[in-house]
Amino acid sequence: MSISAIIAAAGSGERFGAGIPKALIQLADRTLLEHAVSSLAPVADQIIVTTPIGFEKQISELLGDGIVVVTGGATRSASVRNGLAVATGDYVLVHDAARALASTDLATRVIAQLQNGEVAVVPALAVVDTIKVTDSDGFVVSTPDRATLVSIQTPQGFKTSALRDAHASASEATDDAALIEAAGGKVKVIRGEERATKITTPADLNTALSHLGLGKEIRSGIGTDAHAFGEGRDMWLAGLHWPDEQGVEGHSDGDVAAHAICDALFAATGLGDLGSNFGTDRPEYAGASGTRLMQECAALVKKEGFAISNVSVQIIGNRPKIGKRRAEAIAAISSALGGVQVSVSATTTDGMGLTGEGKGIAAIATALVSKQ
């Protein structure tokens, strides 16, 4: 089954008073929108972002190639309909950029229910406060039994054809599941997560930072790697095989992105470096894939008592062109590291040095970890 993901990011952010769309507000090292994209990239075949009018180019440049950017509508439902118009997946996740920290695991659990035959799936948390229904004068009308109440989150998952049918009436709703309900469809509720909280005010950012582990012992690290191109070598980069590209020389598969990420994680945790852990004196790592090295690196980091908050890697070279496979690269790296947040970018050096002269490729990575 193919999965499209629509991220509703056309909100104005007026309650923040920031003067920019809410999705572009910064949370730690990235915007809310980038956090949301990173969470869905490992599980979605297509990612569609709905943007405010006038911000299409800026958001497209921020996210890079491989992300479909469409202009949002005047309402959330209208924005989702614009996204549905270009969705190609058999199933679709609908997510709010404001729930930036909803995890990849949550999206995976929603998809699992769709794979089991459900048509509509929503995550939710039990309501812990007493809820009152009031009239227009502010008097209590009734008190619902909170045992039957839940607070709905995103991403929500749907069979694409069913959601299109539900939107055909052009009705408005605060979430897409309500349209399925109105059409007589059944909506499956699964357990949500605290970190999928909606970020609507500046105070909410502090809560979100705590979910990122900022407030524990935080450490960061930087890693770099470079390899020269070599005849007869396959190109492996960011955990992906690039069949039409010349590979690089190296003890392992020469995946500079994976190697830089490992070095950054080792630096952040004080566990040495790539050479001391997987160097040429370790014959068992001859020809080892970048994916294997990242998996073993993540295991060492966890054993030392650290959790990976996120990694970011920039690939430096004239080729291969990263843009069209950026989402694949994010997914491959995130999967190898256990589902963490990942950012991938690329640049050139304007004809200077090893990479600029087309003799090789390099990468630089940063990692943020927290002591558990």
From TrEMBL:
Write the protein's name.
Bifunctional enzyme IspD/IspF
Site description Transition state stabilizer, residues in chain: 15, 22, 251, 348
Q: Region 2-C-methyl-D-erythritol 2,4-cyclodiphosphate synthase: start and end of each range?
A: 219-372
Which residues bind 4-CDP-2-C-methyl-D-erythritol 2-phosphate per the record?
A: 225-227, 251-252, 273-275, 347-350
- Extract the coiled-coil ranges from the record: none
Please give the cofactor(s) recorded in the UniProt entry for this protein: a divalent metal cation
Alphabetically list the UniProt keywords.
Isoprene biosynthesis, Lyase, Metal-binding, Multifunctional enzyme, Nucleotidyltransferase, Transferase
Q: Which gene encodes it?
A: ispDF
Name the residues that bind a divalent metal cation: 225, 227, 259
Q: Which organism is it from?
A: Candidatus Planktophila vernalis
Q: Point out the annotated site residues (description: Positions MEP for the nucleophilic attack).
A: 146, 198
PROSITE patterns hit by this protein: ISPD, ISPF
User: Per its UniProt record, what Pfam families does this chain match?
Assistant: IspD, YgbB
Q: Which residues form the 2-C-methyl-D-erythritol 2,4-cyclodiphosphate synthase domain?
A: 218-369
Concerning its family, UniProt says: In the C-terminal section; belongs to the IspF family.
Question: What is an annotated GO biological process for this record, any one?
Answer: isopentenyl diphosphate biosynthetic process, methylerythritol 4-phosphate pathway
* Chain positions covered by the region annotation 2-C-methyl-D-erythritol 4-phosphate cytidylyltransferase: 1-218
Q: Which reaction does it catalyse?
A: 4-CDP-2-C-methyl-D-erythritol 2-phosphate = 2-C-methyl-D-erythritol 2,4-cyclic diphosphate + CMP; 2-C-methyl-D-erythritol 4-phosphate + CTP + H(+) = 4-CDP-2-C-methyl-D-erythritol + diphosphate
The molecular function GO annotations come to: 2-C-methyl-D-erythritol 2,4-cyclodiphosphate synthase activity; 2-C-methyl-D-erythritol 4-phosphate cytidylyltransferase activity; metal ion binding
